[in-house]
Amino acid sequence: MTEPDFLRSTRASYNTVAIHYAERFRGEMAAKPLDRALLAGFADLVRAAGGGPVADVGCGTGRITAYLHELGLAISGVDLSPGMLAVARRTHPGLRFDEGSMLALDLPDAELAGLVAWYSTIHIPSDQLPAVFAEFHRVLAPGGQLLIAFQTGDQSLHLREALGHEIGLDFHRRRPELVAELLGRAGLPVHARMLREPDDVGEFVERTPRAYLLARKPAELSAA
User: How many angstroms separate the CA atoms of 63 and 118, rounded?
Assistant: First the structure.
């Protein structure tokens, strides 16, 4: 099967910027208290449901993977870019990172207690989102939690340069209500959502508002 062009361009772009990306965003979590709180809440929800393996899908250099590991989750990372994964493995040698695509995760059905997609679905074209969310549903166990973060808006952005490198990368901004509807259709009803205005001070200034959705795969009903 021929690989879609957007996967090739996304992989190539992140391979190109991997080292400089890691340097640029190394301290971002320390500057984002609301993001840390949301991740901590996700970790609590996974533990409250009994725990189990968690995947950070689109993990990049592994900073979110490492943070959730510090919070006590049994987490591993998955990413499309070998360059980003090489940085993740060097930086966090005690954690597992695998190459893969969110369109076809190399995981058994109902394997995960939790899944994080932290600004990683933003490179997926809208017509491919239902397939991605169906894959998230497949790998989550009943009762499993999903945390997804993305920039909000109606327009897409194509970047040809980043961090001093030539790239070709599409960013798809989406309305939270649209993403929530697609998740619901995939069998992952949203049970919490937060919108955050862009940070306009400090080292990590943002252009657009941010959205965070918590969804859950319904637990199986007990036989009467």
Answer: 10
